């Protein structure tokens, strides 16, 4: 009773310092946080299978979008749970402390050690380490970024961790025959909805596989098939949009032949085999940075990544972690690779070739295939500010990029050696992004930067190309715009400098600050001029709303070059017509999802090309 008079005065009833929690306790709280994250991550992939079976495409898209947030949500949640445990314990630095005290250092080193110990036998140790880093960075200040407190390098090897079930299954066509082996392989995925006609699909698939292998296996009949001949496929399906993919390798005489089998739905909602992707380039396109992340249920993600790397050795582990939805792991690995590359190269960062942006300062390291984009301090575009640019980049991250928009990694506080910056670039950064850089001794810290794959800007390509190459690039340019539009993206600024060509010659859009959704746009015809003076005046004679677009105007700023105009009008004249855009917008507004196949239509099984007349947009 006599405590009552003091009840409102917490400084009197709470001890100044609480007993310290044990390092084991803190480590186990972080691991619990990660385990919860990974269970939810796996659950979303399990849900994707059910959604695919029931052809619930909007559900799959929504799930993919929501899943992107899971990681940050769980990190915040875990840090919030740790808050009260660490509060008043002298274990977190106060905001004005620059260094951790020796006691604090010892404690956090022990937490890291305990965490590493608890990962023995864990199935996703590399992702758990990354989660540990994210949580610790929230709790500690960023100045403590070093290997004593964080997993700057991995502590646990991920080779040969295998799940209770092995991560891939093997089939032996020499023992059973090809058709039974393929049938078994497909039925082993246990899809709950029926195939339209599995035996006939498998026959077509086998025929196509034999046709491909005839060209690829050794010519000498005595050496054609080796005793190691087998088909290996990852245990679970890869889901994205309206497709599910079996990913595997055919092994013969130790040579790996990568493949993927695309499963889709018939209009009557039965499952069917749509295509056999039989080359490394096909798989590279499937796993491209221009597409949404796959939903795939993996107990041991590192085993999946090792398998995928055997199929496409040119792609880094970082890219695969990204593609399978573990983008924080991808981001972490990318940064490690990048620092490693910096330590093994000597060239200089310099401004990216092409036309400078009004919103972004873009630079690159020639020996490394990425560009670095920083938002300018002063943006010479009406109504554009840092928050809007960031929200547009986030929109793209969450949107289905449909093979036409590049994914980006967003980093803060990137410290790089100043001597690796060309004088011209240093000058540019000091002038254009002074609030975004910090120069300390021999380092330059980039406070905020987007990193994205480097491409060849289309304006540069068009200035070099002629004849068929130019025509094909312009054809693809229009296709890219159509596909973006069908996918509810109005690019805003469609100048050629905002598109780039990938290594495989695919055209991708990368300037996001003016994108909007199709559904918020008004596409209008230019009304007839009331008189000649109006037509000649510098101001338009008709009112223009904020989201009004006049497709006829594209001709003026896109089609000045005769060669480009001719090619454009041959393939895409309707893109200059507001009616085309309105029809497209209405389809999107009705929730119609077009079939955008992440592969060349020639890879579809023969009967599909005739039998499935739905709108088809090739890869
Ligand atoms: N991924 C990339 N690969 C190669 N070059 C690139 C890439 N991204 C940007 N660039 C180069 O940097 C320039 C500016 O990039 P970006 O279009 O993103 O900037 P911006 O400021 O948003 O442009 P804008 O003024 O059109 O709004 C491009 O025109 C191109 O030359």
Describe this structure in words.
The protein is α+β, with helices and mostly antiparallel strands and 619 residues long. It has four domains: 15-144, no CATH class; 168-342, no CATH class; 345-454; 458-576, Transferase(Phosphotransferase), domain 1 (Orthogonal Bundle). The protein is built from 21 helices and 19 strands. Strands 1, 2, 3, 4, 5 and 6 form a six-stranded antiparallel sheet that branches. Strands 7, 8, 9, 10, 11 and 12 form a six-stranded antiparallel sheet that branches. The model is unreliable at 1-13 and 610-619 (pLDDT under 50). It binds adenosine-5'-triphosphate. The site of adenosine-5'-triphosphate has 23 residues, from strand 8, strand 9 and strand 12.
Précis, in short:
With 619 residues, the protein is of the alpha+beta class.
From the structure above, extract its key features:
4 domains; 619 residues; binds adenosine-5'-triphosphate; alpha+beta; six-stranded antiparallel beta sheet; single chain
Quaternary structure state of the chains depicted: single chain
Stretches where pLDDT is under 50 for at least 5 consecutive residues are 1-13, 610-619
* β-sheet strand percentage: 15-25%
Please work out how many helical segments DSSP would assign: 21
Give me the count of strands: 19
Domain Isocitrate dehydrogenase kinase/phosphatase (AceK) kinase: 348-600
Subcellular location: Cytoplasm
GO molecular function, one term: kinase activity
Active site: 407
